[in-house]
Amino acid sequence: MRLFVGIPLADAVARDLAAVVGRLRSSESAALRGSDGLRWTEPESWHITLQFLDNSTAEQLDCLKARLGEVRSKAAPVLLGKLGCFDRAGVLFAEVTVTPEVAALQQKILAATDPCGFVAETRPFHPHITLARSKGQGHRTDLRKLLDNAGGQPAFTRFTAREFLLYESYLGASGAKYEIRQRFPLIEA
């Protein structure tokens, strides 16, 4: 099973983001004329990944549930930043500002998952919400055109993450689907 740990979005933020995505989708045809287009993610799948765990065994799942249940961290303020793209990966995203609380939570999760056999990534932590993926390998720079046609950067609602979740990911022809395996509360200040 493919697992990851993430923060779910508050409803108000998901609504704001859905409005932005609607505007982007309406400008997609002009920006991506001649390309294979984008595969847009569904609002119910939006989350902020704190650690991707990849393929896991049933024993690792049990370990994760126990270890993540021991994580004690404050509720974390979350603020979405600008829209951007990872050109090489062909991903359009909404950036998440790394607050001290989000960074501390992510570090605690990395420490909790280590005894379960998961190695932390060596790349810097760049939290984001994936909005779309390029369908074609040769047209990833078209994401920049889409952002240029978007009419400026949106302003997003700030929210407080009051929990983090252990998700299981299922890959299918229409993209990934996520199932919540367990919820873990954060400490209210």
TrEMBL record:
Keywords: Hydrolase, Ligase. It holds the Pfam family 2_5_RNA_ligase2. It is an enzyme of class 3 (hydrolase). Its EC number is 3.1.4.58. InterPro entries: Cyclic_Pdiesterase, RNA_CPDase. The keyword Coiled coil does not apply. It catalyses: a 3'-end 2',3'-cyclophospho-ribonucleotide-RNA + H2O = a 3'-end 2'-phospho-ribonucleotide-RNA + H(+). A motif (HXTX 2) lies at residues 128-131. A motif (HXTX 1) lies at residues 47-50. One of its GO terms (molecular function) is RNA 2',3'-cyclic 3'-phosphodiesterase activity. The keyword Ribosomal protein does not apply. The active site is at H47, H128. It comes from the Bacteria. Belongs to the 2H phosphoesterase superfamily. ThpR family. Hydrolyzes RNA 2',3'-cyclic phosphodiester to an RNA 2'-phosphomonoester. This is RNA 2',3'-cyclic phosphodiesterase.
